[in-house]
């Protein structure tokens, strides 16, 4: 492959240059394309070349995005939106090549409205940058994933993201009030909860906003978004508690989550596998002795007058349910580093203790509180079987994090983290890994859960189970996809949505 090889002809590239307004916004060179294929989740590296886009484009306006999408339809070229590229479900990976629309130059703040409490942005902006600008106004946009420094508003919409402080402030779907969207055919529409961009609740028509959250770029490209502003919290209170067994910690997690304290932003339960991994291999973590077999982290946000009395109640509940407070340094220090955990190079251990570079895979699911202990046992047992068989995986433990917005007591974002010696993946071990993921997802469904809580189910291993989880809803998904994207150009091959097409608009016609 040459440095500029692309399956698109010069005519298409020239058309793109005309739309985007210059060579610097149309990138057919190999490094630009390779950089927009890579994702943080483990990847069959030996097959990387199959997933390169033919060209990356950098639009700056909604009109440019719309024209690029219309061009894609005219020529039958796949088109894939990409934001921060931190998605863990391969959503932004161009399965069939084509045009990657990198939204990062669409990063302007368009309107800060301190009266109706909204901020309107182009979707290429990152939350860290946005909140730096908002600081002077005493407000924040409280979407706070662990990927806060590197994920971007457009990708948060594309995945319907989950926020670490969602118990208090809500998740991406609760925080995006409305958006401007380029549909798969190139028309530009506005969707929200009602007519106006700043209306939070309406009963007019279908509630379309939710349709355009979490579709992984299969239903269009969000170009602008109007977002919630909340008062900058006066206090961030974090408290970590140690437990000598998982069962007691699980009970305590439930008691804290059900406390009904409005300032509670989140409660997370780490199990003993996670603690063993942190103790062993995470230099950022302040290790606990082996007698500590589970840890709960909790956080509260809000005004001082609310948080101080609520935190006293929280401390009392944790103590009464068997928790030992780990002190201010660990609690505040570890909470403050919640965005840094995966920023350091990762390594893991093989069965014989050998340390090797590993990449991180997290299998996330929504699991009802009552089912957490049973799911935990089954997930670790599955991981062990695949570790024993293939020798390139490592169990980095599990956590369960309060999941719902405002009523954080029912189900939990539950994650098992697996280290993978990625360079050693070959066809056989990749197939094994996909099967391992599928078994983990099957357990989630058996226990009344959802395959994924925030990342999306667009990867092999998960995606095959989407029709099972969605039931009749999957037929509706296909009808919507075919109606909105008649030429199957918008992120084709994702979510099994090729099944919505027959004949010339189906898979073969796309590439
Ligand atoms: C270290 C780390 C920690 C993480 N922690 C969290 C966490 O706490 N919570 C959480 O929810 N996720 C987390 N993630 C996953 C990831 O950060 C989220 O899924 C995030 O929302 C992806 O945003 P992005 O900007 O990187 O999007 P990308 O990965 O670029 O795209 C994600 C999907 O959205 C689509 N898309 C991109 N832009 C648009 C657009 N403008 N319009 C429509 N669709 C679009 C893409 O096609 C793709 O399908 C984490 C990831 C990492 C690496």
Architecture overview:
The protein folds into 4 domains: 10-104, Uridine Diphospho-n-acetylenolpyruvylglucosamine Reductase, domain 2 (2-Layer Sandwich); 106-231, Uridine Diphospho-n-acetylenolpyruvylglucosamine Reductase, domain 3; 235-462, FAD-linked oxidase, cap domain/gating helix (Vanillyl-alcohol Oxidase, Chain A, domain 3, 3-Layer(aba) Sandwich), CATH 3.40.462; 471-510, no CATH class. By secondary structure, the chain is an alpha+beta fold. The model has no long low-confidence stretch (mean pLDDT 93). A 7-stranded antiparallel beta sheet has the order 15-12-14-13-19-20-18, sandwiched between helices. The protein has a 5-stranded antiparallel beta sheet with strand order 5-6-10-8-9. Strands 1-2-4-3 form a 4-stranded mixed beta sheet. Helix 1 (10-20) packs antiparallel against helix 3 (62-75) and helix 13 (372-390) packs antiparallel against helix 14. It has helices spanning 10-20, 30-35, 62-75, 127-134, 153-159, 166-169, 172-175, 208-211, 246-257, 272-281, 304-320, 328-336, 372-390, 427-446, 466-470, 472-484, 507-510, and strands spanning 26-27, 55-57, 79-82, 99-102, 109-113, 118-122, 139-140, 176-182, 188-192, 221-228, 230-231, 235-243, 264-270, 294-302, 324-325, 347-349, 355-357, 359-368, 393-402, 411-420. 33% of the residues lie in helices and 22% in strands. The protein starts with 9 loop residues before the first helix and ends with a helix. It contains 17 helices and 20 strands. The structure holds flavin-adenine dinucleotide. Flavin-adenine dinucleotide (FAD) binds next to strand 3, helix 5 and strand 10. The site of flavin-adenine dinucleotide has 36 residues, from strand 3, helix 5 and strand 10.
